[in-house]
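notes to self, project folder thing:

trying the whole complex as one job this time. last attempt i did each chain seperately and stitching them together was a nightmare. two parts in total, labels are on each line so i dont mix them up again. if this works i'll redo the older ones the same way
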Amino acid sequence: MQLKISDYLKPEAIIMEMKAKEKIAAINELVAHMVKNKLVDDGKEFINALAKRENLESTGIGDGIAIPHARTNAVRALVLAFARSPDGIDFSSIDGKPSHIIFLIASPENMKSEYILALAKLSRLLRKRAVRELLRNAKDPDEIMEIIKKNEE
Amino acid sequence: MLVLTGDADQSILSAAVQFCRSVDGRLYVLFVIEPNRVSRLASLTHQKVKFVQDKTEEAGWQLLYLIEDEAVENGVWTSLHLEEGNLMHVINRYVDSYQIDALLTKRKDEAKKIFVSSSITVVGL
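result (full assembly):
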């Protein structure tokens, strides 16, 4: 199955400087941003699904990255959002470090294959130190999009 | 803790999740990419090492997230890890770091190796 992260992440789903300082506030801010930009139908259900996951696992994958995610019918298609936190947020990362780059992924319940593939592709992409550095230093959403597009090929 | 390598298949998922559920345990899932195996596979298939490495890593993440999805549906706490290096060294590091008390693996040859060198319970699924 061919799937590209850059096909699903939209510039309007990018927050260059997140205000939130802790995990649940960060998820709320990202979801509110997605609802405002009409990327999510039911923000409340979406937050509940993400919070349920956060209680059962650590979505901080280390190296300053967190990927909160959920399968929920609060969304109608595979959606992604990106946020940067200058101070970092505690996502209970496996390496104990705060997360500065947060990618959120969600899909409807019946899109399990796409959802798993998107998570896998994103995790692999973000293991590259050079990509993480570029994302942390990007100036605007267009540059974020360009970095992802260029490096996932 | 569940240990996976490039040879692992999906049949291990449900067994591992149900095992953790039955003992009310936490599931640390570790996928290990072994450079030697990647090089060997690249050589056998006449592909570039980088290509095989990327494919192995992506397959590893997919397996990890598949397990996580099933674990979450069953209310089992999960933590996903993908590491590169010597299998035994990585396993020993994780056993020490996370106070692992049982280890599950699919491949019987791995189970034997791990059983010989590990101080914890090893289950070959």
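what i see at first glance: The first strand of chain A starts at residue 9 and ends at 15.
need to look closer tmrw
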